């Protein structure tokens, strides 16, 4: 009996140890500890992980990489190249490898060469410009402006292609009508009897009806495909927004619990400042000057902006947090 009890306890120890580790790492990760963020991502990214766990692991890989963790940058580049636990994005993978290579990392330089050597196509100039502007944006305001301009240009080009494809479809639909109209022989009233005119009119009506019917069917199919695409895009966007908001709510909830557990009770104004600082990644007792606050606001705007995967509500909360922090600093 004792042997069985020891065996059961031995099997349960790793489970409780792992749960405790995840909880501890999560607390440190939320405090911007890059090493904890990377370790937490590795712990969550297993073969048995659920989709939600994989999404969370990818989020912490990103946070650790953005906080300068070298191994996290390598791991994130590898995930983006292979399309593991997220969609493949070669441009973003090249960005992380290029940043390491520029800093003198020999392993990243070799990895970058290997990627280019194995490519079956030549990278687009606009994609390469995006990579280098993205690297420069981490160190210079001009780089930030250039990076934003490139993202806007690529967005406009995608929209222009969609409009162009619709125009080509309209032209294709118009061609059958023009062809049938041009092949109709001119009628000479002097040499045509009434029966011949009747036959010609009937044929024209049949052809016109057929063309109109085909055009209506084609437009109906096109409209159906477009509606399906819009619905799919809307669903994906909503899923992304829900996941993002869920993480934010969890973080805010933990911050709120910490604030509530602190005696004495803080005024409502201090709680608002604490929540705003948490959204910006600052500690309430170590808020930087207004210039650094605005630079952090620019970086966060690229994450929460509706055109870049965020939402209007995210931007409103970010703007509100900026006003609260600046008001607190300028007192």
Automatic annotation (TrEMBL):
Keywords of this entry: Chaperone, Coiled coil, Membrane, Signal, Transmembrane, Transmembrane helix
Q: Which residues form the signal peptide?
A: 1-19
Provide the transmembrane region boundaries.
195-213
Please indicate if the UniProt record lists Transmembrane as a keyword. Answer: yes
One Pfam family per UniProt: Sel1
Highest taxon above the source species: Bacteria
Q: Which SUPFAM superfamilies match?
A: Chaperone J-domain (SSF46565), HCP-like (SSF81901)
Name the InterPro entries for this protein.
J_dom_sf (IPR036869), Mitotic_Regulator (IPR052945), Sel1-like (IPR006597), TPR-like_helical_dom_sf (IPR011990)
Name residues in a coiled coil.
235-262
Give the protein name, as stated in the record: J domain-containing protein
| Organism, scientific name | Vibrio paucivorans
Species lineage, top-down? Bacteria, Pseudomonadati, Pseudomonadota, Gammaproteobacteria, Vibrionales
């Amino acid at each position: 009996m004792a042997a069985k009890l020891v065996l059961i306890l031995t099997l349960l120890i790793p489970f409780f140890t792992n749960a405790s580790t995840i909880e501890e790492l999560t607390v440190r990760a939320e405090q911007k500890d890059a090493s904890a963020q990377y370790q937490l991502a590795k712990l969550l990214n297993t073969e048995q992980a659920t989709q939600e766990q994989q999404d969370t692991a990818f989020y912490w890989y990103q946070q650790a990489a953005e906080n300068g963790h070298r191994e996290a940058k390598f791991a994130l580049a590898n995930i983006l190249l292979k399309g593991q636990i997220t969609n493949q994005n070669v441009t973003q993978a090249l960005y992380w490898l290029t940043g390491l290579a520029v800093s003198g990392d020999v392993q990243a330089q070799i990895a970058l060469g290997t990627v280019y050597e194995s490519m079956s196509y030549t990278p687009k100039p606009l994609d390469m410009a995006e990579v280098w502007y993205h690297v420069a944006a981490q160190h210079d305001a001009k780089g930030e402006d250039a990076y934003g301009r490139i993202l806007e240009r690529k967005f406009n080009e995608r929209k222009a292609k969609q409009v162009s494809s619709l125009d080509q479809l309209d032209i294709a639909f118009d061609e059958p009508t023009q062809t049938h109209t041009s092949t109709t022989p001119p009628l000479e009233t002097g040499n045509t009897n009434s029966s011949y005119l009747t036959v010609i009119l009937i044929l024209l009506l049949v052809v016109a009806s057929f063309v109109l019917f085909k055009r209506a069917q084609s437009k109906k199919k096109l409209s159906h495909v477009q509606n399906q695409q819009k619905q799919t895009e809307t669903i994906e966007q909503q899923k992304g927004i829900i996941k993002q908001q869920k993480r934010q709510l969890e973080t805010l909830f933990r911050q709120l619990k910490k604030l509530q557990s602190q005696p004495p009770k803080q005024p409502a104004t201090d709680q608002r400042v604490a929540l705003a600082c948490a959204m910006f990644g600052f500690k309430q007792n170590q808020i930087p000057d207004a210039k650094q606050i605005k630079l952090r606001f620019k970086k966060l705007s690229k994450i929460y902006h509706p055109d870049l995967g965020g939402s209007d509500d995210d931007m409103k909360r970010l703007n509100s947090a900026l006003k609260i922090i600046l008001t607190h600093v300028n007192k």
